[in-house]
Design brief:
Strand content: 25-35%
Oligomer: single chain
Largest sheet: 5 strands, mixed
Order of helices and strands: HEEEEEHEEEHEHEHEEEHEHEEHHEHEH
Number of domains: 3
Radius of gyration: 21 Å
CATH class of the largest domain: Alpha Beta
Strand order of the largest sheet: 3-2-1-9-10
Helix content: 25-40%
């Protein structure tokens, strides 16, 4: 009887706790929250002033006593207390507190990078418990992404997913409901932004912030020649003169797929012949926000000789996958 009341009053949640953005999926409601993984705190006291969209707008623009930070680095927790505060904010936003909340805490599925250690997994679980969650289940990001884009992960045939987020690039070949081969590298969207910052500093003596670098990447960045080169005005600070400066750059300058293609090829190189044969027909599916880099699908296809497809909604793939896990596995009380 108690379990029936618990199921009625509690909320089951899936969370894509990303380095750059966090998404929350609530059972029977779908994705209800998409916000940057950024927290603004008061220096010294670490008092949280803003979280998500409001905090991201503060990046690079805060006075000396306020810090806008990203508590997740390369998909893992870099600052436990701030991550806890961010999780608490997201959970309270989608599950407003009721008088029964202390008795019926939400159950949560959290997607984590495939390459993290047991200690790092424990840190995620502890942060979620400290934020007011009851049961915590972890699912590997490439598996969640594969489920989220609708790949037939339970079939006895190979499916390949490349999930490129802000902090990590996850490459996995999946068959019979499990990950057969996997690579996880810390070269993804944030590394692309860092390369752009370095390029502007080295070539133009122009200092720009991470938000400007991200805007350049999204506006004119590409991984493969598109046939229509674009230009963009970039504003920053001249390193020599110390004054504001505007430069015009071309999309040809901002072309770098980093180690993503190499990681895909390494994973394919360790694949069994039978699974390789499956991939010739099924190809590779790209997900994650950084997979939206123009021409990346064409570059990977050219380098591997396999068909490459971009997911219908790459940004939501992992969150949608956690939602499926919430709906299908939690009622059976199975840990993923």
């Amino acid at each position: 009887m108690f379990s029936k009341f618990k199921g009625f009053f509690s909320t089951d949640i899936g969370i894509d706790l990303g380095t750059a953005n966090s998404l929350v999926h609530v059972k029977d409601r779908g994705i209800v929250l998409r916000e940057p993984s950024v927290v603004a705190i008061e220096e010294g006291s670490k008092r949280v002033l803003a979280v998500g969209d409001e905090a991201k707008r503060m990046l690079g623009r805060t006075p000396g006593n306020i810090m806008a930070i990203r508590p997740m680095k390369s998909g893992v927790i870099a600052d436990f207390d701030i991550t806890e505060a961010m999780l608490r904010y997201f959970i309270n936003k989608v599950c407003p507190k009721r008088f029964w909340s202390k008795y019926f805490k939400p159950r949560v599925v959290i997607a984590v990078p495939g390459g993290i250690t047991e200690v790092e997994k424990r840190a995620v679980e502890d942060a979620a418990h400290a934020a007011g969650v009851g049961e915590v289940y972890l699912v590997e990001e490439p598996m969640a992404a594969a489920i989220g884009v609708g790949l037939p992960v339970s079939e006895p045939a190979g499916s390949m997913i490349v999930d490129i987020g802000g902090g990590t690039c996850e490459v996995a070949i999946i068959s019979l409901g499990g990950i057969v081969h996997q690579r996880s590298v810390h070269q993804a969207g944030d590394a692309m932004d860092a390369c752009i910052v370095s390029h502007m500093r080295r070539v133009y003596n122009l200092l720009i912030g991470e938000r400007t670098a991200e805007s350049i990447k999204m506006t004119i960045g590409s991984a493969f020649p598109t046939g229509q080169e674009q230009t963009m005005e970039v504003r920053g600070r001249d390193i020599v003169a110390g004054l504001p400066k505007t430069m015009t750059i071309t999309s040809e300058e901002i072309r770098d797929a980093l180690t993503i293609v190499e990681t895909v090829r390494d994973t394919l190189g360790s694949c069994e012949p039978e699974l390789s044969a499956d991939l010739v027909d099924r190809g590779i599916v790209l997900s994650g926000g950084s997979s939206l880099l123009r021409g990346l699908d064409r570059l990977i296809s050219q380098e591997t000789g396999l068909p490459v497809t971009l997911a219908d909604d790459p940004l939501s793939a992992v969150a949608e996958g956690t939602g499926v896990v919430v709906s299908d596995l939690l009622p059976k009380n199975r840990r993923t």
